[in-house]
Automatic annotation (TrEMBL):
Name the record gives this protein: Cell envelope integrity EipB family protein
Pfam families: EipB_like (PF08904)
Taxonomic source organism: Plastoroseomonas arctica
Alphabetical list of InterPro entries matching this protein: EipB-like
Superkingdom of origin organism: Bacteria
Length: 243
């Protein structure tokens, strides 16, 4: 994994028949910093949606985490706003142990939730999927706690393509040209609904992306259910480690 700052341009890929969305555009800034004993991550996503009547809504999501390098502790904060007004906040910390662990929320309500055995934190999950793809594994199904929802951990299923050597040809991103990569599709499921249905149902959210071996993603598609947004990296800065 490498520290980096990447900027993405977001456009509407497609809207489903039952959707009222006519247009979508925006930007995302994703930053990973090597903090020596862990990783700090910040993601800011701005999305402007236009419905079929021409009404516009701008949503902004600010998400930040600190995760220890051994993947056992996480601090997280998420603030979402619509039309300039805060619509939701999630904040807390988590500890992962061999038998599961605990997540403690400070926002939106103070409460504690037990984590199932095998839960991964977000950076640990990224590393696990990259290692699995390089080893030839095609599917990885694990609980994930990333702090983006107040319901706690989610079940995830990641489907990975065959590992591809030296896939990057864009001269704007020389740091990626010699690196291997894999295309992945990650589906997120509500654990309560999964247990009630006796198996995986409809995902709450899906994201497809191409991950390079250093943890940089240059292409992504975010599936919000009613519509899908396509993201393409337009800027990349590799950030040196201070360690």
């Amino acid at each position: 994994m490498v520290g980096h700052r990447a900027a993405y341009r977001l456009v509407l890929d497609r809207a489903r028949d039952n959707s009222d969305i006519a247009q979508a555009s925006g930007a995302m800034l994703f930053e990973v910093l090597d903090a020596c004993d862990g990783w700090t991550v910040r993601q800011r996503l701005t999305l402007k949606l236009t419905d079929r009547d021409g009404n516009e809504t701008e949503t902004v999501s600010d998400y930040s985490t600190y995760e220890t390098r051994d993947g056992t502790r996480l601090r997280f904060a998420l603030t979402q706003s619509s039309q300039g007004a805060v619509s939701s906040q999630v904040q807390g910390e988590a500890e992962v142990t061999a038998t599961g662990g605990t997540v403690r929320f400070a926002q939106p309500n103070a409460r504690e939730i037990a984590l199932p055995a095998g839960t991964l934190l977000p950076m640990a999950h990224t590393i696990a999927t990259l290692n699995a793809a390089r080893a030839g594994t095609r599917i990885l199904a694990v609980p994930l706690l990333d702090g983006t929802t107040a319901s706690g951990p989610q079940d995830t299923t990641t489907v990975m393509s065959a590992w591809q050597a030296a896939a990057m040809t864009d001269p704007r991103f020389p740091a990626l040209i010699p690196l291997g990569s894999s295309r992945m599709r990650i589906a997120f499921f509500d654990r309560d609904q999964t247990s009630q249905s006796g198996g995986a149902g409809t995902p709450d959210y899906e994201v497809s992306l191409r991950y390079y071996e250093n943890g940089v993603a240059d292409e992504l598609k975010m599936d919000f259910g009613e519509f899908v947004v396509d993201g393409r990296m337009v800027e990349l800065a590799v950030l040196p480690s201070p360690c």
